[in-house]
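Task: complex structure prediction.
Instruction: return structure tokens for all chains below.
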Amino acid sequence: MSLPPDGRDLRLIGYHLGKVAVGLSLMMALPAVVAVLLGEWNSATALLSGAAVAFWIGQLTEWRLRTRAPLTWAHGTVVVALAWLLGSVLAAVPLFLSGHFADFLDAWFEAMSGLTTSGLSVIQDLDHLAYSMSLYRHLTHFAGGQGIVIVVLALLSAGGGSIGTLYVAEGRDERLVPSVVRTARFIFLIATAYLVAGTLVLFASVSAAGLGGWRGLGHAVNLFFAAFDTGGFAPTSQSAAYYHSLGVELVLSVLMVAGTMSFALHYQLWNRRYGELAHNTEVRTLTLTLVALTTLALYGLAASGAYTSASGLFRKGFLTVLSAHSGTGFGFTSGTLFLSDWGVLAPSAVVVAMAFGGMAGSTAGGIKAIRIGVTFTGLAQDIRRLLLPESALNVASYHSGRRRILRPELLRAATAVLLLYAVTYLGGGLIGLLYGQWDITATLFESVSAAANVGLSVGIVGPDMPRGLQLTYLVQMWLGRLEFVAAFAMIGYGVSVFRGRRLRLRRPRRRSA
Amino acid sequence: VGVEGPGRSRDGGLDWRASAAGMGLVVLMAGGLVIVGWLLALGMQLLAP
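Output:
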């Protein structure tokens, strides 16, 4: 990319964004087929209209902007950042046409929440949503979770270096296998294997809970997408609590853990490198923080008298902490109880769990276990430096696939992103306070839930929420999903485009001879 | 020549055993966390003031 960017750069970015639009139209086509089969004509019309809009935008860019120019790192980051914005707007079209949203902003918020695997919802009358539209809503988790950009480019383009550029820009900075296309296919192989196994087991468990037949199968598929992609949407307004079934809750727990694990770790396990589970820094960090935060939350719940039985503490307390830490956001109890009945300690532990998030390279959001682990490793190294003699060799390392030396630049990057998340969490909390309707506990809870792409809510997010706050959370979900870098690159790109134009306007024209 | 890779055998086909073992281990890990959660719930029930 030239600085300032010129028309060729914009053409290249527009061309690749068109591919994302075509991918989205394919995503809408599947539930549209289901809608036709079930005779849900309103839903079919909405989905086909959305698919048509996305498809023609994609075709238009194919005709007008087709280019063979190579995609650089800068282009890749800008395309990814814009893809989430454009993708969520296009994905909002069928939702808006479904009639379950007050206006387009609500539908856009829902689509962004789905694609970023957040799970915050402003839908109206969810319990009467058409099956096909419910499938589409959950499918946004799958598309977003598996990486909208990598999916589209891996499937539709011929492969090569340009895909690699986009892949890394999306925040998954570790190539599992030499070819990124193969990496994408491996991610889909894992997702498909879990889709088949997870849906079957979920179907059995919801059937045992009394929800059999096609309706049960629909719930199983939707719950799988929401759990494995750490999304958190649910087919009913009561979320996971709707089923009143320990069996369903246990299956969802397994899927949430599987979803919050990095694809790199799945890769190691599928390659028979089982020792990775014991040595991996992220696994250790995640286990440690989960146990610590569960202990705090359960102690708080027991002390406040919210739940006195072990069953209540486990099914409401532990599962909520797991849901928060994995970035899923399933509700195992009503969110309004967090502030009214749970005391102070338990909701605080849930907020910290949401803020930490899952593993890097998974569909989970939040700061990520590797950054937490690396930051603490660096802190321990600094303390050792103080205690040891100057001549002593003081090397810190972490384990991710293999033992790696903790280099200062990695530590700096981890702490920088950690700080950005903290600022975003606090910023959203403060903006919520401006409305004067809630206290800092509630606004911080909701802000962290949005920026960490979790989806638990204490009741601020809903169809009647203030529009400014809704936009704030929408931006937070976008920033959290992109882990800031791609978003900042896009903003920098926009500034350089603007400044370039100003330069050109000021520059006097040369007279031709 | 087949492609060797995760969950794949030398001839390029899917190695079901490796894949199933990988998934099984994830289920075991999740099960372990659930058991820890249950034990913590039991402990807090007894320890809570």
